[in-house]
Amino acid sequence: MTLRNYINGELVKPHSDKYLDNYDPSTGKVYSLIPDSDERDVVDATNAAKAAFPSWSATSKEKRSEVILKIVDLINRDFDKLVAAESKDNGKPIWLAEKVDIPRAASNLHFFATGILHFASEAHMMENRAINYTRRDPIGVVGCISPWNLPLYLFTWKIAPALATGNCVVAKPSEITPMTAYLLSELCVEAGLPKGVLNLVHGLGPKVGAAITEHPDIKAISFTGGTATGAQIARTAAPMFKKLSLELGGKNPNIIFEDCNYDKMLATTLASSFANQGQICLCGSRIFIQRGIYDRFKADFVAKVAKRKVSFPSDPEAKLGAVVSKPHMEKVLSYIDLAKEEGGTVLTGGHQVHLEGEYAQGYYLAPTIIEGLAFDCRTNQEEIFGPVVTITPFDTEEEVLLMANSTDYGLAATIWTENLTRAHRMANEIQMGIVWINCWLLRDLRTPFGGVKSSGVGREGGFEAFKFFTEAKNVCIEL
Ligand code: NDP
Question: How confident is the model at residue 101, as a pLDDT?
C-alpha cells in the first residue's frame, strides 16, 4: 500500500516521487510506503490552505461544526478498520486502540466541533464610559505536527480546534505512524471538507516538519513531540513571531503514601507504568513509595508485572504489544544498560522478548522495574519513554517533593493518599502542569493540558485550545 499526501482536497504523490518504508513493529517487516515529501509539497499545501482560508473562516461555526461531525460519523463507521490500522502501524494491542485511540480521536473531533458553538468572547464594561469587546478571529494557516505514540488521538487533538475556529491547516503526522492520518484524509474527502482546509504532508521531521516551521505564511505551530525537537522548532519559529504551542516530554513522578487506597493504587500503577508499552507522555516512570509500605509494594508490584503478557497486538491477552520501532527499542534497552551501570538492580524484565513465527522479528520488550538508583542519576532524570520504571523509597513529604521536582521536566504527577490536606499541599508544591490524585489519566477534555519547565509551553484542551488558535482583538467603544 502506498500512501498519498492530502493537498487541496486531493490525494496526491509527493513531488520527489520517492517513498519511505513503513514498518509493522509487531513483525519488523515493511508493509506500506510513505511519501518522502519535501518543502515543495509543504509549499503546495500552504498555498492550498491560504486559498481556502477566506471562505472557511467566513463559514458559520454551525456549518464548520457540521462538516467536522460528518467526519466523526465516518470514523465511527470505519471504527474497526481504523482500530486495526492503528494497532498495526504502532504495535499496540488491538484492544487498546479499540478502547482508547480511535474512540478518543472521534471524541476529540466531536468535542471541538460542538465546543465551538459555546465559545463566546468576553466583554468588559467601563461603568458608563465605554464598552470593550474582544473578537477572537482565526489566525490563518496553522501548522500541526504530531508524534507516533497515540497517532490519530494526538493528531485530531490538534487539528480539531484549529479547524473548528476557522483556520486552515498544514499537518504532519509522525512518519513512523502515518497510516490512520492517511485514512482520515480519505474520510475528509468523503465528508466533503472543502478543499485546502486541511492538508496533510507525510514525510520526515527534519524535511517536512522543518519546512512547515520555516514557512512564513504558516502563522502558528502546534507541536507535540520530544523536548529537543520542540527546542529546535522554537529556535526557528520564535524570531518569526509565530504563535507556539509545545507539548513535550515528561519524567513523571508517581508518589505513593502509606495511607493510600492500596488495591486501587496498585492496579492503577500497573496501567500508569506500562500502558501503551510505557509510551505515553503521561506515564509515571519514577515511582516513589513511602518507606512503611515499600517492601509490600515492591513484592506485589514485581509479582504482577512479571506476569504481564507481552504478545502480538491481536492477542486479546496481550497486556503489552510491540514498541514502535527498532531504534526506539534499542534506545530503551540502552537505558536499561545505563541503569545497571549507575548501580540499579533490575527486579523484573530488562530484556527484549522474542516471540515466534511471523512475530519473531518484532520489537518486544519485557516490562521492567529497577530499584536502587539515586534520584538524580541519568536514568531518573532523562525520558526513556518505554516500559521501564524505577522504584525509590521516601520518608517525608519534603524529601519526595525534592526528588519529584528534581528533573528538567514538569508534565504530570500522580499522588496517592487518603489525606485530603496533604493531597492539596502536594498539588500546590509539585512543579507540574497536571496533577492526578488517586487516579491516573482521568481526562476531561475541557481542562488545560500541558506541562511546565522543559515539558512545554502553552496549554491545549477546551477553551485554551480555542484561544491558541485565535487572535484576540479588543474593540473599545466610548459611550
Ligand atoms: P519527535 O520530537 O521525534 O517527533 C514529533 C514530530 O515532530 C514527528 O512528526 C516528527 O517527524 C516531527 N519532527 C522531527 N524533527 C522535526 C523538526 N526538525 N522540525 C519539525 N518537526 C520535526 O517525538 P516522537 O515522535 O519521538 O514522540 C515522542 C515524544 O513525544 C516523547 O518525548 C513524548 O514525551 C512526547 N509526547 C508529549 C506529549 C505531551 O502532550 N506533552 C504527548 C505525547 C508525546 P518524524 O516522526 O518524521 O521524525
Answer: 98
Chain segment 56-98, per-residue pLDDT in tens: 999 999 999 999 999 999 999 999 999 999 999 999 999 999 9
What confidence score (pLDDT) does residue 17 get?
98
Task: Output the CA 433–ligand 1 centroid distance in Å.
Answer: 19
198 shares its domain with 306: no
Mutation probe of ligand 1 site: the residue of 34, 204, 224 with most atoms within 8 A of C-beta = 224
What's residue 401's pLDDT? Answer: 98
Indicate whether 49 and 120 sit together in one domain: yes
pTM of the complete model beyond 0.90: yes
Give yes or no: 247 in active site. yes
CATH at 345: 3.40.309.10
Pocket of ligand 1 (CB under 6 A): 145-149, 154, 172, 174-176, 204-206, 209-210, 213, 224-226, 229, 232-233, 247-250, 281, 383, 385, 411, 451, 456
pLDDT in tens, 213-244: 999 999 999 999 999 999 999 999 999 999 99
144, 168, 188, 281: which is the annotated catalytic residue? 281
C-beta of residue 170 within 8 angstroms of C-beta of residue 141: yes
Residue 281 known to be catalytic: yes
Q: How far is CA 243 from CA 157, 316, 450, 453, 469, in A?
A: 17, 43, 16, 18, 9
Is residue 450 in some structural domain?
Answer: no
Distances (CA, A) of 175 to 213, 262, 319: 16, 41, 26
Residues 425-471: pLDDT tens digits?
999 999 999 999 999 999 999 999 999 999 999 999 999 999 999 99
Question: Quick one: 107 and 212 in the same domain?
Answer: yes
Q: Whose CA is nearest to atom 37 of ligand 1?
A: 248
Same domain, 294 and 404: yes
**Distance from Cα 223 to the centre of ligand 1, integer Å:** 8
- The answer to whether position 395 is within a domain reads yes
CA distances from 127 to 131, 216, 265 (A): 8, 42, 53
456 CA closest ligand 1 atom index: 41
Residue 372 lies in a domain: yes
Q: Domain containing 49: what range?
A: 5-248+455-478
**Are residue 157 and residue 277 in the same domain, yes or no?**
no
Catalytic one of 86, 175, 247, 371? 247
419 and 257 Cβ atoms separated by less than 8 Å: yes
Q: Which atom of ligand 1 is nearest to the CA of 232?
A: 18
Assigned domain for 308 exists: yes
pLDDT at residue 442, rounded to an integer: 98
